[in-house]
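To whoever is on call:

I kicked off a structure prediction for a single chain this morning and the downstream step that reads the tokens threw a length-mismatch warning. I double-checked the sequence; it's 72 residues and nothing unusual in it as far as I can see. Pasting both halves so you can look.
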Amino acid sequence: MDKQEWKKIDALELLERVQKLYRDIMDVCTSSDLPPILVIGVLDSVKTRVHIMVNTAALVEGSYRGNSDIYV
């Protein structure tokens, strides 16, 4: 895997990115022929995974740096 360069962003920018990602996934799911229960499952899974990733990143960065900067 290539080494990733981390970029510091603020919480508002992260929220905007997550909302855009969620809307994009929702658009794909709702425009497909998936049954509604699968669409709900996909969206719920994405929401849960993003929530875990953001909280983990904030906790890890905060504990290492002594602050709550978020890097993505």
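Update from on-call: the warning came from a stale cache, not from the record. Cleared it. Sanity check on the structure: The first strand starts at residue 8 and ends at 9.
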